Structure formats: C-alpha cells, structure tokens
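Milestone 3.1: sequence recovery, worked example.
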C-alpha cells in the first residue's frame, strides 16, 4: 500500500511539473517592434514575477497524514516468542523554519521541522502456546533537519528532493507479560515534493517524506525483551513565508 501511495504521489508531481514547464514559452521575451523588425532579447519577462522568489529565510507550517510500519519482536523467558509487522497511522503536522539560497535556477536550503503527531495502531497476535497478546504503537513527535534541493521553474514552481535526519518519539504498550517500551529513534530521511508561488513571498506545497529508523531493544526487570524497528511515511501540505 505504501508503495502505491508513493508512486501515485510521484505521478501527480511529475504531471504538475511538466504542465507548468510547458508554459515556460510564455516567459520568453515579448517581441519588441522596431524599424528593423527584430526581437530585443533583453526585454523584460512579464510572466516571471518576483525574481527573488524561493530565496531567503522562511517560516511556515505543515499538516498531513503519517503511515508507519514497525517490525515488533517480543521474547519472554518462558520461551514464548511473538513477531509481527505492525502498522500505525494518524494526523501529523508542525512548524518549518529555514533558509534557502538560489544559484540560478537551483535553490539549496537548510530546514528544521518540528512535528507533533498522533499516529497510532494496535495489533493482536497469538504465540505458539495459543496465548493472545496486544501491542500498541504511537508516534508522538519528531524533529527533522533536512536539506531541500529545488529546481525553480519561471519563479513560479519548484520541484524538490529532500535528504536529512529525523529523531522521533515512539511508545510501545503491550498486554500480559510483554515489556512496554518508550524512546526516541534516529533515522535517515528522504523525500520529494513541489512548492508553488501563491502570492509574493508566500509558497504553498505538497510533499512526501519517508524515514527508516534504527531499531532498538529493551529488556525489563524480569529479563523479558522487546525490539522495535520502525519506518514512517508522511504526505503533507506546506505553507511558507519568505522574508
């Protein structure tokens, strides 16, 4: 399912980018009539406003929906063992701050994102002894440091890729003798999206981000252990103001 969502998002982004790119011909200098009937190549472009768009410090926010998956393994001293792939999902949004600089049509930036999430999921499993256990996983918040690289089309649209680091808080609650777990996970972040000029200094966008976190293991006082290896995907709308 997550791959279907990703490729659907990729298709929509490519289609939008190509559609806007087709309008670039209107950005060409308008003909300037002279006695010798030639076009002035230095004539201003009326279709490409705000030449400093997509450059400068910015602050904004994002709101979206997160879908996570975790490999959960519970090991008890009485040789009970449960392993499962567990999903969790929910609303996820936060604040974006950063800076980006343009090198011609290329915009390179550094961005910090502070998200608050309530992505949760519950699964029930049965072990070899026919015991039924319940696990619930909740992702509450995360901090991201990421580098967006954009290609600015006609000062109006900027498809982008994202690379960075993510630190998220996850909680695992379990029934019976299964050990609970709470901690922060570090992970590699990647993504893609597109930003568009709405009005001067205001950008609206759509983006996808994915994170693969390092797995963690915990052991309780009775010697029972649990390990969780999560990954997380998010689709979000963004709105930013550039200073």
């Amino acid at each position: 399912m997550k791959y279907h969502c990703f490729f659907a998002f990729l298709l929509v982004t490519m289609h939008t980018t190509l559609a806007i790119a087709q309008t670039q011909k209107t950005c060409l200098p308008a003909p300037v009539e002279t006695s010798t009937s030639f076009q002035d190549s230095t004539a201003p472009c009326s279709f490409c406003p705000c030449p400093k768009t997509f450059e400068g410090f910015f602050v904004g926010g994002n709101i979206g929906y997160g879908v996570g998956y975790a490999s959960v393994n519970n090991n008890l001293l009485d040789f009970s063992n449960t392993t499962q792939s567990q999903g969790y999902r929910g609303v996820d949004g936060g604040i974006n701050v950063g800076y980006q600089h343009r090198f011609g049509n290329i915009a390179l930036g550094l961005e910090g994102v502070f998200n608050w999430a309530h992505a949760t999921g519950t699964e029930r499993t049965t072990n070899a002894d026919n015991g039924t256990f319940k696990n619930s996983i909740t992702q509450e918040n995360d901090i991201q440091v990421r580098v967006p690289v954009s290609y600015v089309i006609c000062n109006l649209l900027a498809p982008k890729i994202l690379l960075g680091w993510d630190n998220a808080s996850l909680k695992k609650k379990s029934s019976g003798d299964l050990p609970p777990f709470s901690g922060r996970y570090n992970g590699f972040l990647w993504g893609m999206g597109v930003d568009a000029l709405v009005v001067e200094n205001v950008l609206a966008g759509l983006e996808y981000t994915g994170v693969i976190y390092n797995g963690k293991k915990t052991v309780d006082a009775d010697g029972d252990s649990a390990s969780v290896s999560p990954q997380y995907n998010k689709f979000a709308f963004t709105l930013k103001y550039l200073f």
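The domain at 50-242 is CATH 2.40.160.20 (Porin). The two ends are 39 Å apart (CA to CA).
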